[in-house]
Amino acid sequence: MAEGWSERLDQMEEWYRELLAGGHAEARDSLDNDYRPHREFLGRLRGRVLDVGGGAGLAARFLSPDCDHCVIDPSAVWEEPNWAEFAGRYRAHRPVEFVKGTGEDLPFSDASFDAVLALWTLNHARDPGRCMREIARVARPGAPALVVLEDMVPTWSDVMRFTAKRLANRFGGRFPDAQWGQPEVATLAQTWRVRIAGRWPLQWDHLRIGEAEFKRSVERDFEITSRRWRGGSLTFELVRKP
Asked: Structural domain of residue 173, as residue ranges?
């Protein structure tokens, strides 16, 4: 899984540079769109919050001021002047502790965090399973965790629910279109065609993560309390087991 990690990190950094090059207003709107589906969860958190792969600490914008927000990330792009200036404004200059490192080797004591975030992080990791084991190690018993995964293949149950909602819209329903996170599968016809063909799209800087694989990596240490598609990503709310 570590193969190509440095190249994927470089590609991710370039994407964020290009995002900011489009202007601060455009970047702010794009990031708000990403974070907004998780705003309620983030706003409930209290205490010491670890943000694994949290980049420039942008989640601080949505966290309670009572949170002690710690970000660990391997990238240096967030230290560049343009990003540092934008990020400070975006998070309303809320304090963030930054640590350089990766999710596979968290430099923190056991059970030292009251909540953990891994937002769009595991698809960029060397070893997602090891990241989850480390997250479990540093989370105290009962601590909530939020994991957001990209480019996930919807189950057939997901596809059938999407199909039923689309049919209901023909009779006055107001269900939104399914969002799987990729333009190649934006419509019902595209979803069925690509799902049957078994060629679900994968972004060039991402590692493919299977849902069954992910669940196996967390079932010993976490209870899955919620599984939902939000903002084009598959989102899991977890609670650290005693």
From this structure: 156-197
